[in-house]
Amino acid sequence: MENFAELNELSFSRDGRLIFDGINLKIPKGKVTAILGPSGTGKTTLLRLISGQLKPDSGDILVDGLSVPRLSRGDLFALRKRLSLLFQSGALFTDMNVFENVAFSLREHTRLPEHMIRDLVLLRLQSVGLRGACEHMPSQLSGGMARRVALARSMALDPELIMYDEPFTGQDPISMAVLVKLIRSLNDQLSLTSILVSHDVEEALSISDQVYVLSHGRVIGEGTPEQVRQSQNAELKQFLFGHVDGPVSFHYPSKPLEQEVLPL
Amino acid sequence: MMVKALMNRIGYLGLWFLNICAAVGRAAWFFTQILSWGAGFKAPFKRLLIQIYQLGVLSLPIILVAGLFVGMVLALQGYHILVSYGSQEAVGQMVALSLLREFSPVMTALLFAGRAGSALTAEIGLMKTTEQLSAMEIMGVDPFKRVMAPRLWGGIITLPLLTLMFSVLGIYGGAFVAVEMLGIYDGSYWGNMQNSVEFYEDIVKGVVKSVVFAVTVSWIAIFHGWNAIPTSQGISRATTATVVQASLAILALDFVLTAVMLGGF
Amino acid sequence: MTSKNLEISVGAFVLVGVLALVVLALNVSGLSYRTNDQSYFLFARFENLAGLSERAKVSLSGVTIGRVVEIKLDTEDYVAVVKMAIDKSVPLTTDTSASILTAGLLGEKYIGLSVGADDELLINADEIDDTQSSIVLEELIGQFLFSRSE
Fold it and tell me: B130 — contact with chain A (CB < 8 Å)?
């Protein structure tokens, strides 16, 4: 199986805290790969590393055979035209309406005539079901709608790799179901490669072909969703099934309670 | 003990100095990034227009009203000083020279820092906080070219024009007070002014000052927006820093420029 | 805001700014040579101008009737030649005298005219013969001290 992106022995630390400690990930072409892990494991950081917004301390990141940390600024921007990232907040441009948001990268990177841009944008909006909202400003949209517009925008230039940063967070069940369906169907229809970063275990497992579970800077589980579910790793099981106490303690490290609360 | 405390102090001072150096270095790098527009910069004109509108047209009311009142006050104050020497006829000259050389460039730049500079910082800071700048980068669009450069150039074009308008309003405001209210012969007001004001020495040098201020204010404002900590508190701090630093920079630079232009050293 | 309105307002803004520069250049710095068509020119020779400058006013009985438009040095006689533009509606007699006066103690210099009783009128490019130079404060003080010491 061909890999679209690879992370080899990647280490990264920020403010003296080690976030990744020599992790290896392989993102197969044409599949949906889910990266799961508790909050604070640096999943968003991982996406920023892949898109070249951050540089690793050591190790290499290959995207379509190109080493991202070693690219020049110009080559990096050229590579980024083939990638796209869906931000948790949507990150829509607040000074443009929905139509202009989706048209943004078309206008920036192509010299298409206006009527073609119009057709392309409306088709993208149609595929996320928001063609009727093209005159709205981002502030008029609900969170779920904003994320769908952002999805349409990230699709505008037919990217080869699309990365989703926590796409399900804070969504009601209906828009969650809509997003789950969209991510899967877009991946299959446009033969994309997708990376999905999430801590919503069930939704992520239901649409992904391959799963990595990160914790404390290491990969603690990998394989197909079925393999991961069957794993006997205690830490992995605690995360997947949401047990309150386990290898990850409920309590933040502290002095024993007796010493602080009941000094005798 | 004392020695150790002293060493600590010196250490902090060194750290503080290094931090300042780092900040200046970052700001300088930032400036070169903005200036390197050109290649790959399509349709910059429309964006420039939007910035001139945002920074210039929307700042017009405050600039014009301020110019009018500053000119009127200058005429009133100047008259009362000059009348004791029997030279009240020279009030036009005084109003025009103080406006063209000092008041217009400095006051306009200060007002611009408060009105447009703070807005620039807040806007860019908010774009950073809501990840719009990151989104742009990921989409392969350089925010330095797309967002920062038009704002810098917009400021550089706008502020000198505002300064000229400030001067004109101030001089006519002064004329109103001197001629209509204080009864100075209008031929003296204008004649004296025309005798003493030199196009190059006074008007052009004032415009040069305002161009320097425009670069400074826009640069500081955009830098603080881009450098803001992406929280609401971070944006409010960055906005304050813009106004404070830009104002101080304007006043300090004004002294330096005046010294150079008058050749007092 | 539509594209059209944006262009119009920004265009107007820039035009007003440029207009401001033109106003400053012409009206304030007097870069222009604003000579009224409604005026005629007279010349006068003075031994010492003592601070009289171009565009100084020319007044008659305290009313401004013209301006100094040009100052030259006559290199034969070593006197200053002043060219004045006088309002056409003010006829001046040939025995008009001109003197350089000061408004207030330290104020601006101007030319004060006083009309004589002649019937003939000065015409364009004529010269006023009866002139009195500016009183120079230092000379006056010098004379005063000199006369006291005698």
Answer: yes
| Cβ neighbours of residue B192 closer than 8 Å, sequence gap 6 or more | B89, B90, B91, B92, B93, C108
Alpha carbons B181 and C97: distance in angstroms, whole number: 34
Asked if C30 and B195 come within 8 Å (Cβ–Cβ), the reply is yes
Mean predicted lDDT score pLDDT of chain A: 84
Q: Which of A84, A91, A154 sits opposite B130 (nearest CB)?
A: A91
CB B145 within 8 A of CB B199: no
Chain B residue with CA closest to C106: the answer is: B87
pLDDT, position A262: 67
Quote ipTM for the complex: 0.77
CA-closest candidate to residue B116, choices B27, B251, B217 = B217
**C54 closest CA partner among C15, C118, C111, C125:** C111
Domain boundaries, chain A: 3-82+159-261
Q: Using CA atoms, how far apart are residues B235 and B127, in angstroms rounded to an integer?
A: 10
Alpha carbons B24 and C70: distance in angstroms, whole number: 54
**What fold, for A3-82+159-261?**
Rossmann fold (3.40.50)
Which of C120, C15, C103 is CA-nearest to residue C58? C103
Distance (Å, whole) CA C30 – CA A30: 75
DSSP characters over A205-221: HHH-SEEEEEETTEEEE
Q: Give the Cα separation of B97 and B95 in Å (integer).
A: 6
CB atoms within 10 A of CB A206: 12
Confidence of residue A173 (pLDDT cuts 50, 70, 90): confident
Residue B161, both tokens:
């024009």
CA distance B112 to B99: 16
Q: Looking at chain B, which residue has its C-alpha nearest residue A89? A: B130
Question: Picking from B113-117, B158-162, C47-51, which range would have the lowest pLDDT averaged per residue?
Answer: C47-51
Average pLDDT of chain B?
Answer: 88
Residue B138 to chain C, least CA–CA distance (Å)? 28
Report whether pLDDT(C33) > 50.
Answer: no
Q: Which residue has the tokens 């995207």?
A: A63
Q: How far is CA B166 from CA A7, B70, B162, B261, C111, in A?
A: 59, 9, 6, 21, 34
Centroid of chain to Cα A148: 14
Where b means 16+ CB within 10 Å and e means fewer, A130-169 reads: bbebbebebeebeebbbbbbbbbbbbbbebbbbbbbbbbe
Quick one: closest CA in C to B195, which residue?
Answer: C55
Collect all residues with Cβ–Cβ distance below 8 Å to C6 and sequence separation of at least 6: B49, B50, B53
Token representation of residue B194: 């025309």
- Gap from C53 CA to chain B (nearest CA, Å): 7
What does the angle CA B125 – CA B130 – CA B135 come to, to the nearest 5 degrees? 105
DSSP 8-class letter at B135: H
C chain contacts of residue B203, beta-carbon cutoff 8 Å: 21, 24-25, 28-29
**B137 in contact with chain A, both atoms CB, cutoff 8 A:** yes
Q: Can you name the residues that pair with C130 across neighbouring β-strands?
A: C97
Residue with tokens 């010491």: C149
The whole-angstrom separation of Cα B184 and Cα C103 is 12
Angstrom distance (rounded) from CA B240 to CA C125: 66
Of A188, A190, A219, A221, nearest to A205 by C-alpha is A221
How does residue B40 score in pLDDT terms, banded at 50, 70 and 90?
Answer: very low
Look at A93 and B42 and tell me if their CB atoms are within 8 Å. Answer: no
User: Which of B140, B160, B143 has the alpha carbon at shortest distance from B206?
Assistant: B160
Place of tokens 């101008």: C49
